[in-house]
Amino acid sequence: MAEPAPQTFEETGVAMRLSPLVRRVLAPNPSPFTFHGTQSYVVGEADVAVIDPGPADDDHLAALMAAIGDRSVAAILCTHTHRDHSPGARPLSLKTGARVIGCAPLTLDDDGPRADAAFDPDYMPDRVLTDGEQIAGQGWTLTALATPGHTSNHLCFALEEEGALFTGDHVMGWSTSVVSPPDGDMTDYLASLERLVRRDDRIYYPAHGDPIPDPQRFARHMLGHRRMREGQIRRFLDRQGSSTIPEMVATMYVGLDPKLLGAAGRSVLAHLIDLDGRGLVEQATPGHWVLAS
Hints:
It is a single chain. Helix 4 packs across helix 6 (261-277). By secondary structure, the protein is α/β, with parallel strands linked by helices. Strands 1-2-3-4-5-6-7 form a seven-stranded mixed beta sheet. 47% of the residues are buried. The protein has helices spanning 58-68, 89-96, 186-197, 215-240, 245-252, 261-277, and strands at 15-19, 22-26, 39-43, 47-51, 72-78, 100-102, 127-128, 134-137, 140-146, 155-159, 164-168, 203-206, 281-285, 288-291. It folds into two domains: 15-222, Metallo-beta-lactamase, Chain A; 225-291, Orthogonal Bundle (Arc Repressor Mutant, subunit A).
C-alpha cells in the first residue's frame, strides 16, 4: 500500500464546497483504512443527491441534514457496501423520504478473514443501478459506472455537468485500494482502472483523500503501481523458488504500518490469484506459491 501524502482536511461535520454542484462532509471515522474518515458528497442545489452517506453515526447524519437544509433529496447513492459507506443510507432515507439507489446488495457465502472494512449486511437498496444508468435532478446528472475490483458491486458515479467522477474506494486520494479476495478481484480491479484511463474525466472525488485534478495520469500511476507489485512477486518467486504470502509481504512492504500488514497480505493474495489465472504462478502445496512450470 502506498504511504499517504500530507493533506489538509476540514473538520468533521462541516460541509465544504468543492465546486458549484459539489459539497463534501467528512464523517468522524478516521482509521488506518479510512484515513481522515469517509467523505460523503452532496450534489446539486435546488434538489440534491447524497453519495456514500457513510457509517451509521448520529453526528454524521446530523451534519448531512444540515448540509441538505430545506432542499429535497432526489436520491441516496452508495458506491459499495463496506460499513464505512452504506449503513448511513437507511437512516438518511427515513429522515428525508429519499430512495436508496446505487450498487447492488452483496451476499457472500463465506467472506473469509478480512483486513479491510466489513460489509454492511443490512443494505437494501430501493433501486439498483446498472452500468450506464442515470439519476438526474435540477441541473445535475449522475451516470453509474461499473468498476468491480475493490468489491464486486462497486460503482463510480459521473457528474456529467462538471466532468467529475465520484470514485468511492476504487481510486482513493491518499493510498492504494485494498483488494481482498474472495469478493475483491485483482483481474477486475485492473480492468476497471484501465476503463478509467480511457475516460475523459476532469477530476476525481474519492471517498478518502483529496480531490484528484489529473485523473487519467493518476489512474495510469495506479496501474503502474499494481504492475510493479506483480513484477515484485514474480521476481521474488524466481529467486526463492517457493514462498508464502507472509514471506512476500515481509520483503515487499518494508516499513509499512503493522496495522496494514494484513491488508497487504490480502492484496498479495489477489495478485497471486490474478497471476494464477493467467498461467504465470501456481501453488506447489497449499499456501506455497511458485512460478508456473
